[in-house]
Design a protein that fits this description.
- Two copies of one chain form a homodimer.
- Chain A is α/β, with parallel strands linked by helices.
- In chain A, the strands form two sheets. Chain A has a six-stranded parallel β-sheet, with helices on both faces. A six-stranded mixed β-sheet of chain A has the order 7-6-8-9-10-12, with helices on both faces.
- In chain A, helix 5 links the parallel strand 1 and strand 2.
- Chain A starts with a helix and ends in a 10-residue tail after the last strand.
- At the A-B interface, helix 4, helix 5, strand 2, helix 6 and helix 11 of A face helix 4, helix 5, strand 2, helix 6 and helix 11 of B.
- Strand 2 of chain A pairs antiparallel with strand 2 of chain B, so a sheet runs across the interface.
- The structure holds a DNA duplex.
Chain lengths: 329, 329
DNA sequence: TTGTATGCGTTATCAT
DNA sequence: ATGATAACGCATACAA
């Protein structure tokens, strides 16, 4: 790979002159400019980012540390992050923690070694004090994405509001009892419950919470619920994967969807529209999140003195499909 | 970020001595060693990869250029690639071409600028001569993955053999007619057809090929097929996404699966086991491919003189599930 | 407009 | 065992 010094030798000028030409910076003699450019092109010159970075400029590297790239949701996010980074001439150096704190810690060191200009992170535990201390010590512009970490710029979806949307929707579609699949510490659950309690003070008695995964056990729980609640049941699953499993179980049980039970998933995975019936789901604004996160990050990179911390809760959107729409007969 | 020179100043030794200590290389005075180590640890020293690389060692960067990270299959692959890279102390710098040749070309330049030690690529068009010339000019150890590029190390799945597996399976499960969803240039199709022609010389007349995507149009085509072929029908879809759509359509048509039609997908996506009925699918050995690709690449990086080109066709495996199993009543 | 000199943080080759 | 010194490829301040 040819270097500036080499081009200088070949064209009979000094290396800084080559630098000027190649960076289009200063006023250079047009003839020299042409000669140098021609030589560079002929030899396929590519600047050595390592040297550039050493000499004081930026690395144009953005470290992306996330928990699970094989998760379609994160993979989608990465796609948009990469797209945005590219627009500004940055490249992504990617790390997958696999939800392991040790890996996360190690990667925090690796990105330091590469002197990344900025960091976009999906933390394993966004509010663990150890992690926060570590991050703050790095002194690298950082944006947390899909999670809210206090004291750090965060771009995420307001899950509580999303849960409320689902609750409102199922209620409007005539559901008289409810099943929530997932963990009750989930903000989705909080929003779901709150809005429905507003509608119906006896709501709690009409709610079944299922956290187990085993299909047979789930079927038993559902059976029990349907026996106790004759009216239409609204089911909210914390993600589409889970919703898919439930759809299969309902199918097997002979429960009519959406007639007897309305189902809503989360993440709006591509498969939703292909399922039978098509699955209602909550769509997270992946591209918007990526764009905003990168925007915040680049701003911090360019203006390091701006120490202002921003929170960007974004709104998810329920995409109603057949699985939860009450069709009057 | 503290440097070796700074540590040298603080501990009253020379910078090269610090280097020796930190690299555990030479015999150094134990007292000095301890002093330096303590100082490094206290200040959270991290080597500057840019400087290391400039000074002659490797960048420990592996460029990963692929077509679509948001595709679950590639995302999964990346997960394993990252895992393997990490084991050997390499990091991934990731690029998503989005199937655009211009982006691919541009990224080929970017990885040069970063002086990556090696390249793992899913090309947009693996046998375009322009691309191949470009790749060869780079003179960077490269492994092509999921595709077979002649003249370049390639790790991929033998789709023809995979198609044959599906054909054999459906035949064994008592199918008397067949539907293939996809493109006939697909190697999967070739293998599928070949094996079935061996079994039944009149096979071609019993085969319907559907390439369209529109659900209504697909339904009409299927309807026609079922009217003409009363026996059990074996359906092979080129990927799970498509299989899912078909499952929905069959459901809607009232076609019993697997009784009236056996269905097999491709990629063995996580959703297969949650579908109703669970979907038979061909599993690509993602982890094995990633491991092999990285192994080949690291070998080439460490032994650049070994110019030997290797092809690694790997075997996919049909995972039979309820959707294609003939249950005798 | 152009060349000289210097420094970035390492590694590596010398002496000592 | 350790310290000078040079070199990697580039940017930049300064001199001419």
């Amino acid at each position: 790979m040819i270097t500036m010094t080499e081009i200088a030798r070949l064209t009979g000028v000094s290396q800084p002159t080559v630098s000027r030409v190649l960076n289009g910076n200063q006023a250079v003699n047009p003839e020299v400019r042409e000669r140098v450019m021609a030589c560079a092109k002929a030899h396929g010159y590519q600047p050595n980012v390592m040297a550039q970075s050493l000499a004081g400029s930026r690395t144009h590297l953005i470290g992306v540390i996330l928990t699970d790239i094989s998760n379609a949701f994160f993979a989608d996010l990465v796609k948009y992050l990469e797209q945005e980074a590219r627009k500004s001439g940055f490249s992504l150096i990617l790390f997958n923690t696999n939800y392991e704190l040790l890996h996360e810690q190690e990667y925090l060191e690796v990105v330091q070694r590469y002197r990344v200009d900025g960091l976009i992170v999906v933390p394993v535990q966004e509010n663990a004090s150890k992690w926060k201390t570590h991050i703050h010590h790095l002194n690298i512009p950082t944006v947390v994405i899909t999670r809210r970490a206090e004291g750090l710029d965060s771009v995420y979806v307001d899950h509580q509001e999303a849960g409320a949307q689902v609750g409102r929707h199922l209620h409007e579609e005539g559901c008289e009892s409810y099943v929530f699949f997932g963990n009750t510490v989930d903000q989705k659950y909080q929003g779901f419950v709150e809005i429905l309690e507003e509608q119906d003070s006896a709501f709690r008695e009409k709610l079944t919470i299922i956290a187990i995964r085993d299909s047979n056990a789930v079927e038993r729980e559902l059976q029990k619920h349907f026996e106790q609640h004759p009216g239409r049941t609204g089911i909210f699953a914390y993600n589409d994967r889970r919703a898919l499993q439930i759809l299969g179980i309902l199918n097997k049980m002979g429960i009519e969807v959406p007639g007897r039970a309305g189902l809503v998933g989360f993440d709006n995975t591509y498969m939703c529209e292909y399922l039978y019936p098509p699955l209602s789901s909550v769509s997270q604004p992946n591209e918007a999140m990526a764009v905003k996160a990168m925007e915040l990050l680049l701003h911090k990179i360019q203006q390091p003195e701006d120490i202002h911390v921003e929170n960007w809760p974004m709104r998810a959107e329920l995409i109603p499909r057949e699985s939860s729409l009450f069709r009057k007969k």
